[in-house]
Each structure stands twice: as C-alpha cells, then as structure tokens.
Design brief:
The protein is mainly alpha-helical and about 180 residues long. Among the domains are: about 80 residues; about 30 residues. It is built from five helices and no strands. About 5% of the residues are buried.
Length: about 180
C-alpha cells in the first residue's frame, strides 16, 4: 500500500515541478489517474485483510472525498479558463470595431456602431381574384336557410328516436350472466 502511495506521490511531484502545472487541468487529470492507481492497490490490499468490507468502505469514502475535491478544482479551473477566453474574445472584438471605425473615418464614412443583421423580406401574399367567387354570393337565401333548418331538425329527431330505442332495448334485455352463488 505504501508502494502505490509512493508511486502516485512521485508522479505528482514530477508533474508539479513544471511551472504553472499545479493549477492546470493536466494536473487534475494526473491526480485523478494517481487516485485510480492508488484505489486499485488499496482494493487488492483490502482483500488481503480479514475485514474486507470495512476496509473497502473506508477506502471508498476516502476516494469519494478526494474525487470531490478534484472535481471542485477542475470546475474552478474550467471557469477561470472560460472567463479568460471570454475576456480575450471581447478584447479582440473591441479591437476589430476600433479598427473598422478608424478605417471608415479615413474613408470619410460614418462609423457603424452596431451592425444590424440582414433579414430576408417576408413576401406579402397577393390576393388572387377568382371570377367564379365574385359572381356567387356568400349570403344564402331565405328558402335555403329554411331548408337547412328543416334538415337539421329532422336529423335531431332521428338521433333522439335512435337513442330512445337503444335505451329501451337495454332496459328490456335480461341479464345474461347468472349471479354467483352465495357462500355458506
């Protein structure tokens, strides 16, 4: 067990010698690999002991806490790297805008403060004139309305009649299943 800790420690010492390495994602990855190596050795050492489950539980708890610390460091490093990239991109954007403004002033044009994105014009639908639609009227005559109403009423009456028939058949129909016998 001491040998694998020594091996992991040597790996970390060698990597930490490099300048600026302690605060890098490579350092976190190296520590994670060293932790995995140490975990494998600790697990095999636990199986050599009598109380295997207790040993494995202790090691798993230690490994979880160390992994959580590594994850926190990794997230902090990624956040700082992301913030640095954002600052660099904003600086480059400001520099390009300043160069563009200078170039336009040299040419005698007004500098563009913010460029508007080009949007394709939306085509406006053109109404199509149909001669057959112009000749027909959308208003129905009184006779047609009366005929429509009579057809509607007859359909309603027919539906009510069918509904009454079905209900009557259901009431008259005897129960098909015999009731279950009562247990004594």
């Amino acid at each position: 067990m001491k040998a694998h800790r020594l091996l992991g420690g040597l790996l970390l010492v060698q990597l930490a010698i490099q300048p600026g390495y302690a605060d890098s994602l490579e350092a976190v990855d190296a520590e994670r690999k060293a932790l995995q190596i140490e975990a494998a050795h600790a697990e095999s050492a636990c199986y050599d002991r009598f109380a295997v489950n207790a040993c494995l539980s202790r090691w798993a708890a230690e490994q979880r806490s160390r992994s959580a610390a590594l994850r926190k460091r990794e997230l902090a490093l990624r956040d700082t790297a992301r913030a640095q990239r954002t600052r660099e991109q904003l600086g480059q954007l400001e520099q390009k805008q300043a160069e563009l403004a200078n170039r336009q002033e040299e040419l005698g044009q007004n500098p563009v403060v913010a460029r508007q994105p080009k949007v394709a014009p939306v085509p406006v639908p053109v109404p199509v004139s149909r001669p057959e639609a112009a000749t027909s009227t959308s208003v129905i005559s009184a006779e047609q309305a009366q005929a429509n109403r009579a057809a509607f009423d007859s359909k309603q009456q027919e539906a009510a009649r069918r509904k009454a028939e079905v209900e009557k058949r259901i009431e008259e129909k005897p129960d098909r299943a015999e009731p279950l016998p009562v247990s004594p």
